[in-house]
Amino acid sequence: MPVFQLNVNGRLHTVDVDGNMxxxxxxxxxxxxxxxxxxxxxxxxxxxxVHLDGHAARSCSVDVGVACLSRIKTIEGLSYDxxxxxxxxxxxxxxxxxxxFCQPGQIMTAAALLAEKPHPTDEEIDDAMRGNICxxxxxxxxxxxxxxxxxxxxx
Amino acid sequence: xxxxxxxxxxxxxxxAGVGSGALVLGCYITPSGALAENIFHKPLxxxxxxxxEPDGTIVITTHxxxxxxxxxxxxALVLADELGADWSRVRLRQADADGPRFxxxxxxxxxxPSYLIPEDVxxxxxxxxSMALYFLPMRLLGAATRLVLTRSAAKLxxxxxxxxxxxxxxxxxxxxGKSLKYDLKLLLAASSVGVPQMPEITAALxxxxxxxxxxxxxxxxxxxxxxxxxxxxxxYGADQEVHHPGMLTAVIARCPVANGTVKSFDATAALAVPxxxxxxxxIPPDFPIPAGxxxxxxxxxxxxxxxxxxxxxxxxxxxxxxxKIEWDLSSPAAAANAKYDSDTFxxxxxxxxxxxxxxxxxxxxxxxxxxxxxxxxxxxxYVPHLAQAPMEPPVAIALYENGSWEIWSSTQGxxxxxxxxxxxxxxxxxxxxxxxxxxDPAEQNNESERRAQKEFNEQLGTLLGMTxxxxxxxxxxxxxxxxxxxxxxxxxxxxxxxxxxxxxxxxEAAFLARQYPGVPIRVxxxxxxxxxxxxxxxxxxxxxxxxVGDDGLPTALLxxxxxxxFFATIFPADGIGAVARxxxxxxxxxxxxxxxxxxxxxxxxxxxxxxxxxxxxxxxxHIRVGWMRSVANIYHAFALCSFADEMAIAAKKDxxxxxxxxxxxxxxxxxxLGAESLTNFDNNxxxxxxxxxxxxxxxxxxxxxxxxxxxxxxxxxKSGWNERRGNLPKGHGLGIAAHRSFxxxxxxxxxxxxxxxxxxxxxxxxxxxxxxxAVNPDRVHAQLEGGMLYGxxxxxxxxxxxKKGEVVQNNFDDYPVLRIHQVPKKxxxxxxxxxxxxxPTGVGEPPTPVVAPALANAIFAAGGPRxxxxxxxxxxxxx
Lengths: 155, 879
What we know:
B: globular; disordered N terminus
């Protein structure tokens, strides 16, 4: 099998896997980075969201052979130097998580949104976040937490 | 639900590990030096829920599954509060399946043997009852332990314990200000201070003003898991590492038709996939297939497992199996199921409700009233099968070694997992699986239960050729064997919603593990598996008819409900299974509903109507049926709360005013449900303490119409109903619905907008709940928000259809669920009448079933169609 070199959270990893293996399974089963979740396998739910060169991507639908061309960031690499990312902090302070399973994916999408649009409107949040499903229904708190992380007031 | 699990009389104190001869601080402190061995190495166990580490850190065992309701932190906070612990010095430890350890006996057991919390439900996170069951037991455990630590400290300080107070991890002597912190020193002295008795413990319960955490806001009641969840460290089913190396992952190709089996398969292509190690049938040939066939009870569907070094390889292997498996659909059950078509079946259900069914409640003479009314109000409602679709698809890991199984599972029912894995793996005679349910008839709650239990015992005895004494012995041995041989660990759940109440996926893992001793096998479900092989919520058709008097109120009301009962799946169709079905939970005869389902919004109809008849009509089942968040309330509340609105429209009255009028005069209180056969969901399912009673007594939970009225008034006030009705812009509408379920009272108001293109926008949603005392208000609000949105999701989008016995839908593309842009911009939630003297009741499920009818009523008020079937996207455009 081919060998791929992956840059994950600033560290280089060499993996020897089928080039069609989705990045999700490389992260979870080969590298043991289990914060990235499997929810649907077809880019419908967003639980597996990671950053490729800073952009949110569904790791279940990106082959490792493609992913290796980008810098990969997972939820494990989101907080820097022990400090929580503003989204992570807002998520905790806002009591967002219920079961918590979708939240790494939600946070990765939200973090990418804020990097691009530091002060998103409700509509921009909905547009960016509609690819991430939460069955517990934490959506209203997610909206608020994103505004909080942006330092914007909410009603 | 307790009827099947009563065993023997237990004493609360002993059972809760608080005393009765044993020292309060557990059996580890003995004069023989056991303490010395333990003290520096591991936490010292104080009772079944509390241990202390050498540095004084309190370790609280959290015994209920955590699936997003926040119960791990909430119950621990309750215990920590009464214990006088500093939350920052509390660590949580998740328990394994150990039902008997966490069962709670009745402290007020005056000669009548009874459990408050039986061993088979002590860890079963189902029916929205974790807090209802354990709020007071946790308080008592905490208070008892605090009492001992206080007396210990007083002894060491040589002061009067009555002058001491324990709080925030230390005991203070109030007159002098001297203090001792919580640590092992106190435990050393504890063995000589005596065992607090029940009256002392209840007297020591903190007053509301003394609570540090209970009832407080999020800052004081933080989640212990939130930080791990947002940093990716939280461990769910698929993330679990096990102590044994070499774990393999299995992905299973299951028979698409219920009760079918595997005739043959060709594994060549699958085995050629790199990383695939084995391809094998899930159900081994020596497994005794029960009367209902595979797929009955919690026996998994038949299938072929591809076992591989990683998940991707297993999934690829399963793809390679496509068209390489020949299914056997020749059994009568499978052959009938293979003809199941949900469109055709809808007509069958409709026909079923066109004729009289089993009468459940009958007062007056409905037929006579209808005879004199030329134009009664009539309506029908339809709810399709629904899949729970938790974000985390089911996962379980099993390891088989030396005749024992170790299971790791993302499960709502750890003890249920233990039980079913156990009986299926260890007991070759399926009739003996039912011995688990043998009990002493004398211990049952009422005459009909005693009669049913006696009949079940006798029939099982006859079937097995055993005397009653031998049966009791068999049951005891079976439980002992199962609890010895099957160890079940639970992970966090990535959502449950009822799907993970069923242990079928752990049974799959256990079957596979048995074939490969010493190899941990993880069964990973894909989303397609989850959608296609759920235990689907029942498909249902409801028929309602009312005669309306001069005042607009109904003089006669008929409600017929037909639904595919989950008892058809849980209990095999014939033989002793049918006897069990009949005996337990008022299960009745196939194809009728169980008492559990009938008590969810059907027979507990709260409307004041002189002539009332409620009937359950038959519905055969041809697919695996289970339950989803709020269960039978989904179709019953949809029908009844929509029909209330249809009657209001017919009477030309305001929907909210009319709803209140339907409940009768303002002082109408407790609903008289009459016959003992009406289960009211409380007498069986929710044994609990009445808070702050001295001594505690079992609280009754009657249907109290005043409480329903109060939540309606609250939500009407907060939504500005009276001011806004009649003044809304064109195309806007307000809808209301109210319903009692899981012993709580819930009302919701929704404001919608329907444009000229029939496109729906939901602008506002207001929900109010009376759930007794709201122990953790922030989590109650979170459940209100989430529960309502879960209801909104299936109302707009939810539908599972079946063709030729196979589920049509696959994934979130064809089984859509609510996304963030579909969420109302304004959501407000309210807690009504939260009083610490009122026992806490359900919160997870009650917010869900009221949304669909409130939304249907709002859409009609906005000038849209009367929507009487789910999903609504068939009638309005959902963007």
